[in-house]
Specification:
Chain lengths: ~230, ~230
Amino acid sequence: MKTIYEGKTKDIRQEDGKTYFYFKDDVTGKDGVFDPGENQVGLSIEGSGRACIAMSKYFFEKFEADKIPTHYISADVDNRLMEIKPAKVFGKGLEVICRFKATGSFIRRYGKYAKDGDDLNRYVEFTLKDDERQDPLINEDALVLLGILKEGEYDRIKELTRSISQVIYDDLKARGLEMYDIKLEFGRLEGSDEVVLIDEVSGGNMRVYKGDEYIEPLRLSEMIVGK
Amino acid sequence: MKTIYEGKTKDIRQEDGKTYFYFKDDVTGKDGVFDPGENQVGLSIEGSGRACIAMSKYFFEKFEADKIPTHYISADVDNRLMEIKPAKVFGKGLEVICRFKATGSFIRRYGKYAKDGDDLNRYVEFTLKDDERQDPLINEDALVLLGILKEGEYDRIKELTRSISQVIYDDLKARGLEMYDIKLEFGRLEGSDEVVLIDEVSGGNMRVYKGDEYIEPLRLSEMIVGK
């Protein structure tokens, strides 16, 4: 296999015309503390790669059953390899956040109007992946103006984000867990330009609580797919 | 006259059932330097109140001729009093920015995709007035979710912003000046809830250049309405 891209937590590999994510045991964080919101690789945790691919496999197969378009083909958890359909990210990378309850950057921005835990009814917002500029918020007009999205893609991505987030929310709810927010990534499939969910869906993408207790990503993965 | 509100650069006064802005000679700035982007009152400049009301009168009367709805009734420049129709701001205050060319916070946010001076084709964005949180950007869904705008008001305000900004842009263009961006405020008229342009329209609201030279607000006012 040939590594064609080295990422912070995953590499992209190719072999025989097929494309794969290889999940590494590196996680983002700062000062030795795991923090999915951080943009730097902070430390290695044995088993974190396996946890991420196992949880991603679980959810991508759920989306498949629900006919939600994604880049997922299959996953080999033991070898930490996920086969994916090649897709292009929007611009230099776009993140889409779905919020069920107010917390984090929503409060930092809109604390004059909302408090922690307020119901946000699956509010969706878009941010640019840009470490240097702290992943700035961006509206539909700017996304189109800067050539990042085409007309109509904003609403399509918003609709997909709500459906996907609801599937995950309901799954966690049935386990007595509550998801406050989740961060997703989308891209255009090579060839067709169809908008699909890309990247991974693991503990690091979401903020989940059991009552007042925050469930950290690896523990969440354990609760869903075991060790 | 009774002062019912004391603002940074203007007071609101009432007499005989009529409402007025009283333009003060205070301007926002920092360390003794006039900076319309600053949120603190920095210094007093003799004649600044008169310059602001004279320029506002000039533009509000232009908008009136163009049938653009505003809160303006009349202005007494010598006494620095502008009679206005009472209106309510959106939420705790909302600012609407129209950008013809990229500069300032647009570049600070989207510098990965745009450079200073890029054409932005009257792109419109909304920010909350919130000194403590550096006037955060906000999208349509959040404005509706937080009860700041009602359905439909976002598009109405965007359309008004583009028309108003174009009137000002064209006026300045005819004088050999180029407006890069402008910040406007809107509100709902008391009684009817009609969306109208409120506040003032003066040099501090806009970034104007003559070639490569930035024209500071008081000089701009002088170029338009004289001393």
